[in-house]
Design a protein that fits this description.
Length: 439
């Protein structure tokens, strides 16, 4: 009798365990279903706008550049591939570079230069258009021996990328994070490159005075925005941080980590997003000689003091003989949202209320933020509790949310032909590109 009771008890326990596992698997399936639904159907806050899936089945797409109407190049971070997408279809794979993919390494940046729009002399033929690529290059195969963070210029001829020219050979250590790599062509026809400090763990071997650390190594490309001509030379316009090493190519410095730079088409000013640690994400306007303050400050001075208990000492900043100048961020967060790409809507395709406004993409909740600029376009138009330029709670930024549920947003681009808005929602196995338009 006792053995029968034990047998029945064991059966009951086994059934309960099986039922619990079945319930857990059902919950996981439901969570995955909801997650996939959100990934497929992002939510916009403006009822007059809609999203449309342009293309999927991309592998960690991280940047795109239009070369024509509904015709663009897209790069994949971990595969090193450059693909051409026309009318929503991959029509050609133009390149397959050998890349390191660990953490924030990979094929990280792309920029397209239509030389007919500028007077810059590039190469021997002014009629050739160019594509610039920033890549953590490896030898022989993907994830092989790392050769460096490289900036290449390719000629775009008959739909092919040919005749690569190495313009910059940049550090990749300590790494593997904080590489940056985003590229943009400025209104001056020059190329702008953002690089992080490559030093998340604060390894002394990775320190430099570009990080506002007195007595450390000379700048070598890390921790700033670099500016070069399309031929890779120094821009000779009267501004420079210095004339030794690569210092004459720095446009801004003191940057911890960035996934986005973009130009305001009205003023020509450059802006960036920057990632803090557990706090201190930023949006900044970058003027020549801009010093973001890292590693002496993160966020606004008041936020820095509240989070660390230390007062920001401006005398510790490096100013490169007065050529550099510190600016407070236009907006910062007391909890990280991991902002990524930044761009400006230069048309009224989505309606006049969006014309010349700023969009910022991010990782948390796959959110796109929409901001008006102030009257001088040197800051954001912020009201109420945001007057202090600090987002102290998620609710404070609710009115600025354009959409959510996009996943990891890695790029936002405007089709220069018709002004339509495109968003990369990046995933390692099934990245997507969406178009946002009027209903």
């Amino acid at each position: 009798m006792q053995q029968t009771k034990i047998y029945i008890l064991n059966i009951s326990i086994t059934f309960l365990i099986f039922a619990s596992i079945l319930f857990l698997l059902t919950c996981i399936d439901e969570i995955n279903a909801q997650s996939n639904k959100k990934d497929i159907d992002p939510v916009l806050t403006d009822p007059n706008l809609k999203t449309e899936l342009v293309i999927d089945k991309l592998k960690f797409p991280i940047g795109m550049e239009f070369i024509g109407n509904d015709d663009f190049l897209v790069i994949e971070k971990n595969t090193g591939k450059v693909k051409r997408v026309t009318n929503g279809q991959v029509v050609k794979e133009l390149l397959d570079l050998n890349v390191a993919s660990n953490s924030e390494r990979g094929l990280l940046g792309i920029a397209f230069l239509n030389t007919s729009k500028f007077n810059n002399s590039v190469g021997d033929n002014p009629k050739i258009n160019y594509v610039f690529l920033f890549v953590t290059e490896t030898e022989g195969q993907d994830d092989g021996k790392i050769l460096g963070n490289k900036l290449y210029r390719y000629e775009l001829i008959d739909g092919n990328l040919v005749n690569p020219v190495l313009l910059l050979d940049l550090p990749y250590l300590p790494g593997p994070s904080h590489n940056g790599g985003v590229l943009r062509i400025g209104p001056d026809g020059n190329l702008y490159i953002v690089m992080g400090d490559l030093n998340r763990n604060k390894d002394p071997e990775g320190d430099s005075i570009a990080q506002n650390l007195e007595g450390t190594a000379l700048p070598d490309g890390r921790g700033g925005v670099l500016r070069i001509t399309p031929n890779g030379n120094t821009v000779m316009d009267g501004f420079t941080l210095g004339d030794s090493g690569i210092l004459d190519k720095y446009y801004g410095y003191g940057i911890r980590n960035s996934f986005g730079i973009g130009f305001d088409n009205v003023t020509g000013y450059l802006w960036d997003t920057e990632n803090g640690s557990h706090y201190g994400d930023e949006i900044n306007i970058i003027k020549p000689g801009f010093n973001s303050g890292w590693r002496q400050v993160l966020g606004t001075p008041s936020l820095y003091q509240n989070m660390t208990g230390e007062e920001f000492n401006r005398s510790n900043l490096i100013n490169f003989n007065g050529n550099g100048k510190y600016y407070d961020p236009a907006l910062t967060w007391n909890q990280t949202i991991a902002p990524t790409t930044i761009g400006f809507i230069h048309s009224d395709t989505l309606g006049n209320e969006y014309k010349d406004d700023m969009l910022v993409g991010g990782v948390k909740n796959g959110t796109i933020l929409h901001f008006d600029l102030n009257s001088t376009r040197t800051g954001l138009s912020l009201n109420g509790s945001l007057n202090d330029k600090v987002v102290n709670s998620p609710e404070e930024i609710n009115d600025s949310i354009l959409g959510t549920g996009f996943g990891i947003i890695t790029d936002i681009k405007i089709d220069p032909t018709d002004g339509e808005l495109f968003v990369i929602a990046s995933h390692s196995k099934n990245g997507k590109i969406f178009k946002i338009s009027l209903k």
